[in-house]
């Protein structure tokens, strides 16, 4: 049985957990809370890229992505950024929905699972 590696852990959460060849990312949000959905999506996906790299993988190895939106009015603009970000031919399973996010300033939160090999 493999050990669990936790990345950027505090008393409440880890931003990523690695178990065997799987990487589980916590919800990633933008740094710029006042930004529109386009910038917030870019920032959240950049954090996904960073966490995957820290875990020894990249977005071409994504298995599943969950996108939580503050409002479905942002769906098309978010998709424009997301579609340019994913690796063609390696698109993961995906779910997207409207949720009440922990901070109302956030327009998007991204959760992902990836393989390392």
From TrEMBL:
Pfam families: Ribonuc_L-PSP. Gene3D superfamilies: RutC-like (3.30.1330.40). It comes from the Bacteria. This is RidA family protein.
